[in-house]
Fold:
Amino acid sequence: MHVFWQKGYEATKVPDLLAATGLSRSSLYETFGDKQALFEASIKEYNRSITGVRLVQLQRGRTAKEGLTLFFDHLIATCLDESTPSGCLMVNTTTTLDPHDQRIKEIVNESGKGFHEAFLALLERAKADGEISSSQNLQDLVHMLVAIIVGINVMARTTMDAATLQTMADSTINVVFS
Structure:
């Protein structure tokens, strides 16, 4: 998972995977079938261990605003954690993806649906609780949140400046809840 996360799907070569897993070429193919199947297993693990924990933060807050704050705090901490590659496996893969690789594109898009659904649920809660205006277009806000998350993940790969990432998060929260 970390190799794909660091390099992206396209740049990851079988020798990289052999070195990371400690498997022989024949064992890798016997266990996973091919690089794409190993990538799919890596995405499942990433979604379980990273994305799942991230999305739980949205529900931990007493208010929707607090939930979004917890989410961004966790996102930034994860992006800057020196024990993991910077950024996000899905974002890193997307930015290096061969546009003709339709199956990997589908896998990445499917993985992203959870964010859309979780943000929409959070914003519906915020609207019901009066935290945001009833006239707000929730789909527009969801798209903005996803764009900011992508931006934070890309920025984390180019800079380890926590203050800049935090400013991006704080500004987004202020726009959503203004």
